[in-house]
Amino acid sequence: MGLTRLVVLFLAFDGIAKVIRVAPVMEACRKMGIVPDLAVGIGALLLACTAVYVTPRTAILGAILLTGYLGGAAATHVIARSGVFPTAFSIGFRVLVWAGLALREPRLVRWILLRQ
Questions:
Q1: What global pTM score does this model have?
Q2: What is the DSSP letter of 74?
Q3: Residues 6 or more apart from 30 whose CB is under 8 A from it?
Q4: What confidence tens digit (pLDDT) does each residue in 91-112 have?
Q5: What is the DSSP letter of 55?
Q6: Do 3 and 103 touch, CB atoms closer than 8 A?
Q7: pLDDT (tens digit per residue) in 7-50
Q8: Residue 44 CB-half CA count within 13 A
Q9: What's the CA gap between 23 and 21, in Å, rounded?
Q10: Other C-beta atoms within 10 Å of 33: how many?
């Protein structure tokens, strides 16, 4: 549960920072070619996906949605030539999303591994 909390706190912070247009976040978005209005929508999308992830009945759907969101973030970093760290961070964070879910719901791991 602790890993999930850390993941949710980070994602919520990132989403809120985009929605309220925190200056350093908007500057980073601008450098990547993302206009402020689009960044606000991206932040709102992140908050919605995070809310689905944190809700126990929809956690698996939330993890799938966050995987797609973070995949888009990784692709954006590749296109913007941001470097290895931002791209790897996006990819690594997807692993943390699923690890947190697996720790919350051990049946998920058994279902994936034993599925025939």
A1: 0.88
A2: H
A3: 36
A4: 999 999 999 999 988 888 888 8
A5: S
A6: yes
A7: 999 999 999 999 999 999 999 888 888 888 899 999 999 999 99
A8: 6
A9: 6
A10: 10
- Stated as kind and residue range, the H or E segment containing 10 is helix 2-19
Report the alpha-carbon distance of residue 80 to residue 74 in Å, rounded. Answer: 10
Q: Which two tokens stand for residue 9?
A: 């706190």
The span from the CA of 113 to the CA of 21, in Å, is: 42
Residues in the chain, total? 116
- State the Cα–Cα distance between residues 62 and 51, nearest whole angstrom: 8
Q: Tokens representing 7?
A: 């993941």
Distances (CA, A) of 81 to 49, 50, 72, 78, 91: 26, 27, 14, 5, 15
pLDDT in tens, 56-67: 999 999 999 999
Classify the phi-psi angles of 105: left when phi > 0, otherwise alpha if psi is within -120 to 50, otherwise beta: beta
Q: In angstroms, rounded to a whole number, what is the distance separating the alpha carbons of residues 66 and 88?
A: 15
The encoded tokens of residue 88 equal 């790897």
Dihedral angle at the C-alpha atoms of 69, 56, 10, 113, nearest 10 degrees? -60
